[in-house]
Automatic annotation (TrEMBL):
The active site is at 208 (involved in ionization of n3 of dump, leading to its activation). This is Flavin-dependent thymidylate synthase. It comes from Streptomyces pyxinae. The lineage of its organism: Bacteria, Bacillati, Actinomycetota, Actinomycetes, Kitasatosporales. Keywords: FAD, Flavoprotein, Methyltransferase, NADP, Nucleotide biosynthesis, Transferase. Pathway: Pyrimidine metabolism; dTTP biosynthesis. FAD binds at residues 78, 101-103, 109, 197-199, 203.
Amino acid sequence: MTISPSIESETIESTVLGPEIELRSHISVELVDHTASDLGVVRAARVSTAGEEAHREERGDEYIGGLIRYLMRSRHGSPFEHNSMTFLVHAPIFTIRHMMRHRMWSFNEESARYKDLESVFYVPDRDRALKQVGKPGHYQYVPGSEQDYELVSEATSQAYRAAFCEYQRMLDAGIARELARVVLPVATYSTVYATCNARSLMHFLGLRTNRADATYVSHPQREIELVAEQMEAQFARLMPLTHEAFEKFGRVSP
């Protein structure tokens, strides 16, 4: 079976195993709530000298941008913590586990103990590099051939069908969800609420995006980078002056 690069998902039916499964390459991130602004950073910083009057201050972009650049350059990080952004992420489990490595976030995830999981599984699209070359710590990823993409599509779809068939068979027999789920792969899609502040998000972005202009160039797995890129777009929209300073000073969290 071949996955077309022009589609985000495809439903296939096994004539042998029975259940339908959906193969999906799309990873979605939605901003669902926030208390984030550049002015909030300035007010948090100004409390050290203005006291209780800090929260009443209204400043123009020139002042706000100048102070934020000073804070970023000097690594005064705490003023960037007095805000929050909540994202709804729909991604394969292995990608969500990458997110959970960052322990300064708050998470609530869909639970396979309490609900039946849907038969939706991840498969890379044609833009995803497939082959790894080089030694540990110095990997490079290169595109695969048409045969490589067909191999990945066929191998994953067969494994997913078999796993979901056994999962469903155990559920039908009355086996508890928390046990039946053990046969499902980490490519199964899950949904998570993830909340962080701007300082934590900048740390996440520094590690989970590949930017040649960063002070510390990182090489994340592409799937978690897709999450980070969508989060960064929202961050830049909500806090443009903070994001500008983050970029100016090497994409290092203060």
